[in-house]
Design goal:
Elements: H1 2-26, H2 39-67, H3 81-112, H4 128-157, E1 166-173, E2 176-181, E3 217-219, E4 222-225, E5 230-236, E6 241-245, E7 250-254, E8 260-264, H5 270-273, H6 277-292, H7 294-299, E9 310-314, E10 326-332, H8 334-342, H9 347-350
Parallel strand pairs: 1-5, 4-10
Antiparallel strand pairs: 1-2, 2-3, 5-8, 6-7, 6-9, 9-10
Helix pairs in contact: 2-3, 3-4
Family: Belongs to the cytochrome c oxidase subunit 2 family.
Subcellular location: Membrane
Membrane topology: Multi-pass membrane protein
Length: 354
């Protein structure tokens, strides 16, 4: 499939170069009329337009046949994820229908009204009915999509704090993430980048005098209990980052100098997601590739076999190591989460006294 696509791209490049050469020749001063299209040329171009239409439909059908699964559509791991997927699928269906109709009309009329000597193409100087059709139909469809999207977005963003969500801070810096939990009181202490003190291991600028900060927990791995709402508070130390958790259908910018937030409820544990057939197939494909390149991978000191994990990624190009800015997310039962939390150091005990 890759070789086929490469061949198609090379063919398009050659056609583009050929067309550019023809345009250059036509632009030359004093060029002869031999370059003016004849009826035969127009007929060939007309049939080529229809041939290209067939090619578009064929490549579309093949793409659906071999690559038909939309990315992650069966792997949503948050309660709101199915709504996001539904909105995505509806948008893709609308785009597909519009593309199918408009491409047919474009190529068909290019064929039907191909140039011929003595023939004048039929045209309308003004047609209120047609203008109404191609104005009102898109307006209605787009308004429906926008309104549906706004309702979906509002339902996601309106986190009900009466549900006692777990409060977690995601702290972004070039080029890693830190997570800060509110501790037993589930309340984050005050923090400011001006309070960062590397000598005392206060790497997030947490206010040491704030009573709420004493039991905060700072980690380099994000653990979340399944079925419990989580409200993320996001900060950035340096540049604009974007906290992106694809399987949870969550993304929010981390902006220097302000706190942004996003909330969701994890619905599938890491262990359960690893049993998902789509994930198992993906892992198998990745490991087959890695085994084929085992010498290079082991030479770099990396683990040979890949195991699926949820990831927190940066979705903004934030610098030269942007590609490597990620943190593992582990979704587990409440009991497993509580056991993990008991093993963590609280903020007041992690400071280094000088």
């Amino acid at each position: 499939m890759t070789a086929f696509l490469t061949l198609i791209i090379v063919l398009f490049i050659l056609v583009a170069i050929w067309q550019m050469v023809k345009i250059f020749d036509l632009a030359q001063v004093g060029s002869s009329d031999s370059q003016v299209a004849t009826d035969k040329d127009n007929k060939i171009n007309g049939y080529m337009m229809m041939g290209f239409l067939v090619f578009i439909y064929a490549i579309t059908i093949l793409s659906f046949w071999y690559l038909g699964d939309l990315p992650l559509t069966s792997n949503a791991a948050s309660e709101h994820g199915t709504e996001i997927d539904k909105l995505m699928i509806i948008s893709m269906i609308v785009i597909f229908i519009v593309q199918t109709i408009t491409q047919f009309l474009l190529h068909y009329f290019a064929f039907k009204y191909k140039g011929e000597k003595g023939r004048k193409a039929l045209f309308y100087a003004d047609n209120n009915t047609l203008e109404a059709i191609w104005t009102f139909i898109p307006v209605i469809v787009l308004a429906g999509l926008i309104i549906y999207g706004l309702f979906t977005w509002t339902s996601i963003m309106n986190v009900d704090e009466t549900d006692d969500p777990l409060i977690v801070e995601l702290y972004a810096q070039q080029f890693n993430w830190k997570a800060r939990y509110g501790g037993e009181d589930n309340t984050l202490g005050l923090a400011n980048v001006r309070l960062i003190d590397i000598d005392r291991a206060n790497i997030l600028g947490v206010d040491e005098s704030d009573p709420y900060a004493q039991d905060d927990v700072i980690t380099q791995e994000l653990h979340l209990p399944v079925g419990r709402p989580v409200l993320f508070k996001m900060r950035s130390q340096d540049v604009l980052h974007s906290a992106y958790m694809p399987h949870f259908r969550a993304q929010m910018n981390c902006v220097p100098g302000m706190i942004t937030q996003f909330g969701f409820t994890p619905s599938v544990t890491t262990a359960d997601m690893r049993q998902n057939p789509d994930i198992q197939e993906k892992v198998e494909n990745i490991n087959n590739i890695r085994l084929a390149n085992s010498v290079e991978i082991e030479a770099k000191g990396q683990e040979l076999l890949y195991e699926f994990d949820y990831l927190l990624l940066c979705n903004k190009i934030c610098g030269k190591s942007h590609y490597n800015m990620q943190m593992k997310i582990i979704v587990e039962t409440q009991e497993e989460y509580d056991a993990w939390m008991k093993e963590q150091k609280v903020f007041k005990n992690s400071l280094i006294n000088n």
